């Protein structure tokens, strides 16, 4: 479901190294780490030496698998973090001290990409300058347009809002400011008439 005629739906061009950047900051998860490794292979050693990777460790089954991935990303400096929130916080701390010419990258699930772009924007980074590649799960972060509550890791539609309990049809309409897709009441026209739930974003 990465192709849509909805204009707000993000399109990801893929990771490409900026060989002229003064430094590079990458946020990725387990699936996205493969894209980062591919990017590092296409670049030179100087690029990797200027690159810091914030790796979300929550999807790794064993500590050995995490260590193997860190080794695979060398010579880039890879910092494992327990989850997406920690990785995005680390990105913010790094951007607070960043100098002109720093490039931001994001690779992995859509919530990871959206959260990375959202945090970078708080530091004045234009969303079009963040290089992104989707890998792995199609799960979404969904905002209920009625109560404004957020529901994470959504793979089905309709889905029950975790805040107000309404059943929501998940749209392709996306808010970059919120880093979330929009969910609208599934039975707005005929109360109680809920379409069959389908797995659409696995």
From TrEMBL:
Residues 141-184 form the Dimethylamine monooxygenase subunit DmmA-like C-terminal domain. InterPro entries: DmmA-like_C, DmmA-like_N. It comes from the Bacteria. Residues 5-130 form the Dimethylamine monooxygenase subunit DmmA-like N-terminal domain. The keyword Transcription regulation does not apply. Pfam families: DmmA-like_C, DmmA-like_N. Keywords: 2Fe-2S, Flavoprotein, Iron, Iron-sulfur, Metal-binding, Oxidoreductase. One of its GO terms (molecular function) is 2 iron, 2 sulfur cluster binding. This is Uncharacterized protein. The lineage of its organism: Bacteria, Pseudomonadati, Pseudomonadota, Alphaproteobacteria, Hyphomicrobiales.
